[in-house]
Amino acid sequence: MAHYFEELAWQIDLVVPIPLSDARRKERGYNQAEVLSQPLAAILAKTHQPAALRRVQHTRSQVGLGLAERRENVQNAFRAERQLAAGKIILLIDDVATTGSTLSSASSALLQAGARRVYCLTLARAVQGTDLDQPAKGLQAHI
C-alpha cells in the first residue's frame, strides 16, 4: 500500500482508519482497517489519527447487501472530530471496497467536520455482481 500511495503523490496530513462499532470491535478483537493504517502511517511518516473519526451507529454487516442497501446501512454512521479533521487533508483507509458506500459516508463526515480533502485507499476491491461493480461517487483510488 505504501508503494502504491507514493505513486499517487497525494499530499496528506493524517491517516485515518474506518472505525468499527464498539460491539464489532469487541467481537473481532481488532479493527482490520487500523491494522493496515497504523504501519502505513509510520512508513509514510504521517500522523495516524484514529480518533478523528468514530462510528456512531452500529450497522449490520454489508455482506450480502445490494448497492442501495449498503448506502442506507452506513448513512450517518460516522461522526468526525472537528478539532482533529478541520483544515486537514486526510487519507482514509479501509480493508476492502465493494461499492464505496462506507468510504463515501465516512468521507462525508470528515468533510462536514472541515477536512480540506479526503483521499481513500483500500487494500482490495471486491466485485460481486452487477449492482456492485461501480464505486460510489467520490471513491478516488483503490488497490
Tell me which CATH architecture applies here.
3-Layer(aba) Sandwich
Envelope shape: globular
- Strand content is 15-25%
| Strand ordering within the main sheet | 2-1-5-6
Sketch the topology as an H/E string, one letter per element.
HEHHEEHEHEHE
Structural class computed from helices and strand pairing: alpha/beta
Mean pLDDT: 82
Task: Using the coordinates shown, work out and report the CATH topology.
Answer: Rossmann fold
Q: Give the fraction of residues assigned to helices.
A: 25-40%
In whole angstroms, the N-to-C terminal distance is 8 Å
How many distinct beta strands? 6
What radius of gyration results from the CA coordinates? 14 Å
Largest sheet: 4 strands, parallel
Count of domain modules: 1
Total helical elements = 6
CATH class (first level) name = Alpha Beta
Runs in which pLDDT lies below 50 for 5 or more consecutive residues are 135-143
Could you describe the 3D structure shown?
By secondary structure, this protein is an alpha/beta fold. The protein has one domain (2-132): 3-Layer(aba) Sandwich (Rossmann fold). It has helices spanning 2-8, 22-28, 32-44, 67-74, 82-85, 101-112; strands at 14-17, 47-48, 53-55, 78-80, 89-97, 117-125. The strands form two sheets. The protein has a four-stranded parallel beta sheet with strand order 2-1-5-6, with helices on both faces.
